[in-house]
Amino acid sequence: MTDSPVALITGGGSGIGAATARQLVNQGYRVTITGRSEDRLHRFAAELGDPDGLLVMPGNAADRDAVRTAVETTVTFGRLDVVVANAGYATFDDLADGDPAGWDDMVLTNVLGPALLINAALPALRESKGRIVLVGSVAGHVHTPGNIYGATKWAVTGIAENTRRMVTADGIGVTLVSPGATRTNFFDGAPGGLPDRDFLSAEQLGETIVWAIGRPRGVDINTVVVRPIGQSV
What we know:
By secondary structure, the chain is α/β, with parallel strands linked by helices. It is 39% helix and 17% strand.
């Protein structure tokens, strides 16, 4: 157990983050999950039977001190092999008719959050020659009229490639996983609720992330765009 790999996942209490954490724990990883809702994190841990290899760290992915504390605590496992910048959400409005009061938190979570995680984790990842996974979105590859959430995910697309160019000489892999429509609690705040369309499952995205993490050493999977069959854009 002391030699098993270690991963840290932001937004790990539900959705894609939880699905990824579950699969990594089942593969023998020691995993830290972070998130704003302590209750949600502990409920998820209880679902897994509160395994010794799962560490719950409540905290905001856009809070510098919380992120650094999560990384420092995770490294007490003895190493850090993988970080997954998964935390993010949408305000479901646009530049013309949206409420700017909600944009600050979305931009900070979706853009600053991954940057803070990378910054805090790099020393340990250089030592392990580990991997960074950023969860982006199809919205970060396809322009949509007035879409501010999409603009934050375009930023994640840029952070991924800029990070790859910075750390590839250190032996660190960087993967951007950009999901299409995925059935998670992401749509809880959407006007009208869950859209009537084709969806991926959180488990399918978790499998994709775990697949990217599990590539042989020396193989760097850079960009994976994953849509449900039936999603044309």
